[in-house]
């Protein structure tokens, strides 16, 4: 029994039950009339559509499971629902698949990541409870009254802020995607679902104070070149961010999609570094150290550096380059009829706006432009759609995004040619899905 | 008519100056309290490659082995080979192969990062619980096991910053974009 059912029963007084029964009685006689009249109509016409365009009686509706299907009146129409004002609304109990899953193969849940169920989502905004996670020491539960943000180093006035003080600065509310740098690796096993392939990306509207505002407030010194940002979790995660970026569009964010950040997303405050690898958007932000050299922290040396085929490695590879993925239909989905299907997906670029998405349904030989959902926003997920006439044969479908710099999303082969197979991070390859003659959809990468 | 214009002009000036004045009176001065040295010293644990931020004190390889056995071994293995935690040894010469092993010894460019990371995030179950002496010591132990410092080393701020890691010079700044896909629309697989 869930919470809603429990409270429904508790709220029912004798009077309301009585009312309900009366109500149900009236409905039953009406139902009898409807059944009777529909039977007359059915008898009058041959099988198939009648003259007025209605279909003959669906005989499958006679089974027990069809009690709530027409012509029967559903039980939820003949009774009261749950009471108003459950303190925090939840998804329908029937939506079992729209959940985050621990990434396949992870051994423990404290330094781990979970994926957004891309194949279950529509549009371009990720619900807060389904936003992907990456934690390095679990999710701290922080009392905002006991949290502080220090701003120090190369500033005229080192300051310590309360969360309440940060909310008093003029704020902005842009929409940005966030993507983990390793989404996914370059080598097998390749994921079964869109979530397993690229579920470490999500998108939300973030509200916060521009970091530039705080830096000007504290008096940024000319020698400042980098800011080392630190989290208050057990990993005390640190990343160095170039000062140019900090003065451009970086936020100290406290809200996500209109509500305060979830603990998993850095409550009470996080850094948000638009278009850059997710790891830099330090959660549970507690300190900003303005310096003239990068910290070369573990997260920008031992991790989040890109190993090339020659054994050398790229450092400070911050931007998440242009990428897209078809989420509908995608792995584990099934097409149930021949005919037109709408292919849907998401595209994004850390360099700015998406200008086009092309879709191929023949394995990459022929491409046609998809329709983009307006408004297309800077460094935000952009939903796209494309009508596909399925003839019941095997097809490989894929999408290819282009951003405002003119950059075209690459194939995995092109990425491997440039970097080798072991660079792990920044895989923005075109993702193929195979539609079998049965309609079943699987990963087209084998 | 001229008089009316003058009144309008005057009113316009008054409005403008009011707007300018209003802008100038924006005041966020009270937000944020001056940060004191004592407050900062409790939280600022950043260590930089030149040694900035390294604390006083020192540690030996021998003491580091004891710290490792009680605090690190259960996750990182008896021989630093890794387990639930990452491997802390090995991988020399593997980076350009199909099976690269990235460890402190084979991959990390700065020894200061080892100290910084252990002090802030380890042991995994109870981070920021080790003394500076313990952190110096276990750093010395790990570097010695990786044959980067001798087995009788004592590390302090000066000597740790002076350690040159084997892979230090093999990092270069991001030079993407590195792919040049084109927006081919037809017969793309034949090209």
Report on the architecture of this protein.
The complex is a heterodimer of chains A (446) and B (191). By secondary structure, chain A is of the alpha+beta class. Chain A has three domains: 3-66; 105-314, Oxidoreductase, molybdopterin-binding domain (Sulfite Oxidase, Chain A, domain 2, Alpha-Beta Complex); 323-443, Immunoglobulin-like (Sandwich). Chain A has seven helices and 24 strands. Chain A has a five-stranded mixed sheet with strand order 5-4-13-8-9. The two termini of chain A are 43 Å apart. The model of chain A is unreliable at 1-47 (pLDDT under 50). By secondary structure, chain B is mostly helical. Chain B has a domain at 44-50 and 65-165: Cytochrome c-like domain (Cytochrome Bc1 Complex, Chain D, domain 2, Orthogonal Bundle), CATH 1.10.760.10. Helix content of chain B is 40%, strand content 6%. Chain B contains six helices and four strands, in the order H-E-H-E-H-H-H-E-H-E. Chain B has a two-stranded antiparallel sheet with strand order 2-3. In chain B, helix 3 (61-76) crosses helix 5 and helix 4 (111-121) crosses helix 5 (132-145). The mean pLDDT of chain B is 91. Chains A and B meet through strand 4, strand 5, strand 13, strand 14 and strand 15 of A and strand 1, helix 2, helix 4 and strand 4 of B.
